[in-house]
């Protein structure tokens, strides 16, 4: 039976139907949550009438109505659920219908009040007795209401303590696993040797809390940013901190990319922001995008993957130059919506769907083949955090799933894998070295020839 957790970012429900599921993606804010198969938290069996759980369920229904075009019913339900004005409800529904997550600064939590009645005599011996009885009734009602408030607060507290405790313990386990990785060394299969890592937990220059994406520019400089951060940090090829600049953004960061024309692109769930890589000054912001990922080819061309599984080629100002059709409609086997994109030196497209399937397409979007399943090493539930193509001549394609990095040749054959806990972003430099955003670090690996 499906079980539920709460998203730690927006508190929306996460429906977990697979007992082996390792990663879930919040439908409302886009946050990715690490799960432990043995630590799912069931919703409480007792009712919490009109509470936060009802609001979360209604929010899911509101989103379904908005996406189906039934905005009037969605606005009405939002208004009734959260007690906001019609204008606020309309704005919220518009955001949901355009794929933008909601940011809640305050929501009210209604609860069911218990009604108490008091029977008083028809006659009173004095006005003082009447006042005493009235005072008693008022006091009883106040005490009853306070008791109901305390009870509701305790119940909601238990629910959130349990859910957050489960998530925190799960994340802590993976964090501990990441801290056990040696700072230098070779993986057991001999495929990858860690050269160095930098960053680490903290606030300020050179530190990260939750960096999930990175990119390298034409000069070898490395860029990264926290998932919910507002500062792009730049390092040299040896990991030395060079500079940082702040960005005016409140949405989670989906991808950072750098081209060969001195541009850095920052993709969030509702906009594409473009910066000058030398100065950090904003160049342009493209609002209301429907992109889920970015990729840069070896010649510096920029590509974007849409939420409709299309690939758009962009110029340096973020304007569309060309566009493919829906890539998965031509495929005769089950494929979920595409989430990640990479491009090789010939313009061939590589994309991964939500279950981790890795696919290759021609430059014009024609399906070529599906990559090997990595020998079953994905486990029962696949997941893709990022993909990258080596354009240095080594002929490798990489896929990260937050726990490992999988290596393939250009024909789709599985080569091997190495442990890389907490890896959500991956890129390859001009020399074929693999760089990962393994929160809260940036890690550089040299990839070895398995035949040597």
Tell me the domain tally.
2
CATH level-4 homologous superfamily of the largest domain: TolB, C-terminal domain
Query: Quick one: CATH class of the largest domain?
Result: Mainly Beta
Distance between the termini: 49 Å
Strand count, sense and barrel status of the largest sheet are: 5 strands, antiparallel
Number of strands: 29
**Which residues form runs of ≥5 with pLDDT under 50?**
37-50, 105-138, 158-184
CATH architecture of the largest domain: 6 Propeller
Structural category: alpha+beta
Number of helices: 4
Task: Say what the CATH topology of the largest domain is.
Answer: Neuraminidase
Give helix % range: 10-25%
* Chain-averaged pLDDT: 78
Query: What overall form do the CA principal axes indicate?
Result: globular
Computed CA radius of gyration, to the nearest angstrom: 26 Å
Q: What is the beta-strand fraction? A: 25-35%
Which terms summarize this structure?
single chain; 452 residues; alpha+beta; Neuraminidase; 5-stranded antiparallel sheet; 4-stranded antiparallel sheet; 21% helix
Task: Outline the fold blueprint.
Blueprint (H helix, E strand, L loop, with lengths): L2 E4 L6 E4 L6 E3 L6 E3 L17 H16 L3 H12 L3 H12 L29 H53 L5 E2 L5 E8 L11 E6 L5 E5 L4 E5 L5 E6 L6 E6 L4 E6 L2 E6 L5 E6 L3 E6 L5 E5 L4 E4 L5 E4 L14 E6 L5 E5 L4 E4 L5 E4 L15 E4 L6 E5 L3 E6 L4 E6 L3 E6 L5 E5 L2 E7 L5
Antiparallel strand pairs: 1-2, 3-4, 5-6, 6-29, 7-8, 8-9, 9-10, 11-12, 12-13, 13-14, 15-16, 16-17, 17-18, 19-20, 20-21, 21-22, 23-24, 24-25, 25-26, 27-28, 28-29
């Amino acid at each position: 039976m499906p079980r539920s957790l709460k998203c730690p970012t927006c508190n929306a429900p996460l429906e977990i139907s697979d007992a082996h599921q390792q990663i879930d993606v919040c439908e409302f804010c886009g946050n990715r949550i690490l799960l432990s198969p043995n630590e799912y938290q069931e919703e409480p069996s007792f009712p919490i009438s009109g509470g936060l759980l009802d609001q979360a369920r209604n929010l899911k229904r509101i989103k379904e109505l908005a996406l189906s075009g039934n905005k009037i019913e969605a606005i009405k339900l939002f208004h009734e659920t959260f007690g906001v004005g019609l204008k606020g409800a309309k704005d919220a529904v518009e955001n949901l219908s355009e794929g933008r997550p909601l940011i809640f600064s305050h929501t009210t939590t209604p609860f069911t009040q218990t009604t108490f009645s008091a029977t008083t005599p028809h006659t009173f011996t004095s006005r003082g007795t009447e006042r005493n009885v009235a005072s008693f009734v008022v006091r009883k009602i106040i005490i009853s209401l306070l008791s109901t408030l305390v009870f509701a607060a305790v119940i909601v507290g238990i629910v959130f303590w349990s859910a957050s405790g489960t998530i925190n313990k799960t994340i802590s386990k993976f964090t501990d696993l990441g801290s056990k990785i040696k700072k230098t060394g070779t993986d057991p299969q001999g495929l990858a040797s860690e050269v160095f890592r930098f960053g680490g937990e903290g606030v300020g220059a050179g530190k990260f809390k939750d960096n999930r994406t990175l990119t390298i520019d034409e000069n070898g400089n490395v860029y990264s940013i926290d998932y919910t951060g507002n500062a792009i940090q730049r390092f040299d090829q040896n990991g030395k901190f060079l500079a940082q600049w702040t960005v005016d953004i409140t949405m989670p960061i989906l991808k950072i990319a750098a081209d060969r024309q001195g541009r850095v692109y920052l993709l969030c769930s509702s906009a594409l922001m473009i910066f000058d890589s030398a100065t950090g000054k904003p160049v342009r912001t493209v609002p209301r995008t429907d992109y889920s990922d970015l990729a840069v080819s070896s010649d510096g061309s920029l590509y974007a993957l849409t939420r409709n599984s299309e690939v758009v080629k962009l110029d340096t100002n973020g304007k569309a130059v060309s566009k493919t059709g829906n890539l998965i409609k031509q495929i005769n086997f089950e494929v979920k919506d595409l989430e990640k994109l990479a491009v090789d030196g010939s313009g061939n497209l590589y994309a991964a769907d939500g279950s981790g399937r890795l696919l290759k397409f021609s430059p014009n979007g024609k399906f070529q083949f599906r990559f090997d399943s990595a020998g079953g090493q994905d486990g029962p539930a696949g997941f893709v955090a990022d993909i990258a193509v080596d354009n240095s001549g080594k002929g490798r394609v990489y896929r990260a799933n937050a726990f490992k990095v999988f290596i393939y040749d250009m024909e789709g054959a599985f080569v091997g894998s190495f442990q890389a806990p907490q890896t959500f972003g991956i890129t390859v430099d001009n020399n074929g070295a693999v760089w990962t955003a393994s929160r809260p670090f940036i890690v550089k690996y040299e990839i070895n020839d398995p035949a040597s």
